[in-house]
Design brief:
The complex is a heterodimer of chains A (about 200) and B (about 60).
Chain A: E1 14-16, E2 28-30, H1 32-39, H2 46-59, E3 63-66, H3 68-86, H4 100-118, E4 123-126, H5 132-142, H6 146-157, E5 162-164, E6 179-182, H7 187-193
Helix pairs in contact in A: 1-2, 3-4, 5-6
Chain B: H1 18-24, H2 33-44
Chain lengths: ~200, ~60
């Protein structure tokens, strides 16, 4: 077979979690978007994210997360209950008490699963209050959205070199600050977002 | 309150001190491959919902 022409694709510090040769730095930061896909079996990237969690467990690296992650999981649990009841109009029914029982059950289940997940590796939870200044800096310097900025600042605070995420917003940071590990379908969009 | 407010000359916020990171670190409870596999199975199998979870459902854009 003829060799491919041209330069190899620049990685820009963005790699696919499906790549078997991918090195796992210690610690490794997890973002909410990845955890949601891993925990909820009906999500489209569930199998990919679950397989990567398995690799993390086997590798023995520690993981770090922002304390914001559990709050976002709670938000997702109640939004699921509302969306199941109200469909695309769920945002208008945020105060609907009829969805709260289902939301509470989902919340308990999701948080319990998240806590179980964290028991397989050494875990460094980073309090939001210890990352506020760096998060503000990431927002103003690089245009990160606030929640992304908190997760990125937590990762850097814990000494993580890579963030596992399916949110392309983390690629707004320079690769010198944080490598992005994402699913294969997001490589191009993440690489195109990296600052030059 | 401890904070990572200091910024190094390369623009990278300083990480938390090794002492603080040691305080925050929670050692793994499950150590053997069998325990880890079982925990991962409990965490990731069986949670099925009727809708697709999108980033706006946990406060992202």
């Amino acid at each position: 077979m003829a060799p491919a022409r041209g330069r190899p694709t620049a990685t820009r510090g963005v790699f696919a979690v499906e790549e078997p040769e991918l090195l796992l730095p210690d610690p490794l930061a997890l973002d909410t978007s990845f955890v949601v896909e891993a925990l909820i079996a009906t999500q489209p990237l569930h199998a990919v994210c679950r397989a990567f969690l398995n690799r993390i467990d086997e590798s023995g690296v520690s993981i770090t997360t922002s304390d914001l992650l559990a709050v976002e999981l709670a938000e997702a649990a109640f939004a699921i209950a509302l969306k199941e009841r109200w469909g695309s109009r769920w945002r208008r029914h945020r105060t609907d008490g009829r969805a709260r029982r289902r939301g509470s059950r989902l919340l308990d289940d999701t948080i319990s699963r998240y806590e179980t997940l964290l028991l397989s590796t050494d875990h460094i939870p980073v309090p939001v209050g210890e990352t506020a200044s760096a998060a503000r800096s990431f927002m103003t310097k690089y245009g990160l959205a606030s929640y992304d900025a908190v997760h990125a600042a937590s990762a850097v605070a814990a000494g993580a070199k890579a963030m596992v995420t399916i949110d392309a917003g983390f690629a707004l940071l320079p690769s010198s600050l944080l490598t992005v590990y994402t699913d294969r379908s997001r490589l191009a969009s993440c690489r195109s977002k990296r600052p030059r | 309150m401890r904070s990572v407010s200091k910024t190094q000359t390369n623009g990278r916020p300083e990480p938390l001190s090794p002492e603080r990171l040691a305080e925050l670190r929670r050692p793994a409870r499950y150590k053997t491959p069998e325990e880890k596999r079982a925990a991962l199975k409990r965490a990731t199998e069986g949670l099925r919902v009727k809708v697709r979870v999108t980033p706006d459902m946990y406060g992202r854009r």
